[in-house]
């Protein structure tokens, strides 16, 4: 005789089988979470080390010469800083398509627009250069941050200004 058939609506899963199914489902998720946590820690440590290196003191050495390219609406310097209280030879080339000017405003001057630039702000004006022209001059400035601007009408308001650091 055959054993009686079980009622199909009632399913009994032993405890150990339920536990194993749960582990099979969540074990890979736990492993992935751990791996991602380790990666995040490694990245965080490296970012923190990079920040520490970058936030350290920067040697303030200034160049005794400066080359600048002036174009439509920018200054590009070959050095981030020039030496303070020293005659610095400046050569600037107009690589743009219109006339440009190289002028330096006193340290701390930062006018909102070109209409606010007055003669008292200008500490050096090395002149106007036609497209393709190169001019030179000498700057002697005290330590500080200066604003280099183009005084041709409309150029400053178009963004033609750059900070120049003068290092002691």
| Helix/sheet category | alpha+beta
Proportion of residues in extended strands: 25-35%
Q: How would a textbook summarize the main sheet?
A: 5 strands, mixed
CATH class placement of the largest domain: Mainly Beta
Helix content estimate: 10-25%
Number of helices: 1
The second-level CATH architecture of the largest domain is Sandwich
- Could you give the count of β-strands? 9
Tell me the series of helices and strands, N- to C-terminal.
HEEEEEEEEE
Radius of gyration: 34 Å
Terminal Cα separation, in Å?
Answer: 106 Å
Tell me the strand order in the biggest sheet: 3-9-8-5-6
**Low-confidence residue ranges:** 46-60
Here the CATH topology of the largest domain equals Immunoglobulin-like
* Global shape: elongated
Overview of the structural elements:
By secondary structure, the chain is an alpha+beta fold. 24% of the residues lie in helices and 32% in strands. The chain has 2 domains: 13-56; 65-167, Sandwich (Immunoglobulin-like). The chain has one helix spanning 15-55, and strands at residues 65-71, 74-77, 81-83, 88-94, 100-105, 122-129, 134-139, 144-149, 161-167. The protein is elongated and about 115 Å long. Mean pLDDT is 80; it is low at 46-60.
